[in-house]
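HUMAN: I'm a chemist; might I ask for a sequence paired with its structure tokens?

ASSISTANT:
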Amino acid sequence: MKKFFKFLGISIVLLLIYFGFTTYPKLDLISGFSAKSIASGHFIDKRSQEMIELGDNDMDLIDLAKNKINDQEKYATSSVYRLKERKAIYREGLGVTLINDDFDVSKPYLVPKRTKTENNLPYPYGNNEPKDTVFSNIDYTKLEKALADAFDKKGEKNKRTRSIVILHKDRLVAEKYDTGFDKNSRILGWSMTKSLTATYFGILQKQGKLNINNPAPIAEWKNDERAKITINDLLHMNSGLEWEEKYDKICDATKMLFEAEDMAKVQLEKPLVGTPNQ
């Protein structure tokens, strides 16, 4: 019997050591992702905690997090086994921010001045309903099948598509939404935001307000080999800067998203390891 308990004790110790080396360092990432996801989905898109947990956070390791929402003070917290609690706060005009322990929530902050132009043009150039247009060169049967295939079938959680909108020659030709979502839903953009950012730079280029082929206006890079990195290189994610992006481990991407106080500074300090635009 003593041998059994000795074996059991050693096994528990080994499991704790394994947990300490493999999972504990990731708890910051798990609780950080969960808190940000819960707060964004709840305070920005007005979804329930249950819907977010079952639809957005039901992934390996992320589903270990226990979440709480404070509607009065507008924040969400997440932790794993009561360890590594992280908080994400909602601020009107800025959205949701994942904060670190030393973040001063009482500090005043600037709110961008945004205006929404109202006009009578049809979508996508205005606020009116899109024009009902049928194109003879579109096979709508195939289009509808492609839309259906892009979404998970009942019980599946592989594609996790939330919405699809297809525009052709300035006309809305198809749209489809997952259960619980519609044309007014606000969902996390993640890397889709890169395409929007590049589009804005394209507009500024066309307006003659900048030249994307000029060196990136970053003071920290002016006196070293990074000075040759152009705005266009950055827009194409082809700068040659050191970068590792794997979401199942602690790396540059996960440190930037869930640990860094200043996400832009993380990249500013990266060395050049390749040739830009190669």
